[in-house]
Write a structure and sequence with these properties.
The protein has helices at 15-26, 33-57, 63-74, 83-90, 94-106, 128-149, 156-172; strands at 80-81, 110-115, 118-126. With 173 residues, the protein is mainly alpha-helical. It has a domain at 63-132: Winged helix-like DNA-binding domain superfamily/Winged helix DNA-binding domain (Arc Repressor Mutant, subunit A, Orthogonal Bundle), CATH 1.10.10. Strands 1-3-2 form a three-stranded antiparallel beta sheet. β2 and β3 form a beta hairpin. The two termini are 37 Å apart.
């Protein structure tokens, strides 16, 4: 099977290559090879952060708002989770989550309801407007991120995902 040609030909050198070469020249005693990977990951993360912020802003959302709304959307019908589950899904403190829920509720994107199984418990539920907003932002986000991946052949994308999963797994334990 012949793989599709790349959308673009990678440059023979980039800024990271120049940084690595300079460190290698200045400190030949150091194994600077990790810079070739992680400097690119860092630079890519900054570019993706800008692109993601743009996608969310087009739908009047901040990145943290998208995180909370998307966690609720992924929960499935009736699109509700406890504040504790949202803390786990978004990796923030309970105090931060309370503040975020308050702000999203004030914007009409979520509602708080009593938990049917626990009279003291609360569930946070996505409103219809919140669902429309997160769905539109997700569609926009996937288009933006898809364009970034256009630099890879379709067969290379799962390979990159697998490699990144392997490296990131040590932080998820």
């Amino acid at each position: 099977m012949v793989s599709a040609p790349r959308a673009t030909t990678p440059p023979s050198t980039d800024e990271v290559d120049r940084i690595v070469a300079a460190w290698h020249r200045e400190r030949p005693d150091l194994a600077v090879e990790p810079l070739a990977v992680f400097s690119r990951v860092s630079r890519l993360a900054r570019h993706l952060d800008r692109a993601r912020r743009g996608a969310f802003a087009r739908h009047s959302l901040e990145p943290w708002e998208f995180d909370v709304l998307s966690a609720l959307r992924r929960a499935g019908e009736p699109y509700s989770l406890s504040p504790g589950a949202l803390v786990t899904a978004t990796l923030v403190t309970s105090g931060t989550m309370t503040n975020r829920i308050d702000r999203l509720e004030a914007r009409g994107l979520v509602e708080r309801h009593r938990s049917p199984g626990d009279r003291r418990g609360v569930l946070v539920q996505l409103t219809a407007e919140g669902r429309e907003r997160v769905d539109a932002a997700m569609t926009d986000l996937l288009e933006v991120e898809g364009r970034v991946l256009d630099a890879l052949a379709p067969a290379e994308r799962p390979q990159l995902a697998d490699l990144l999963r392997t490296v990131a797994a040590q932080f998820d334990e």
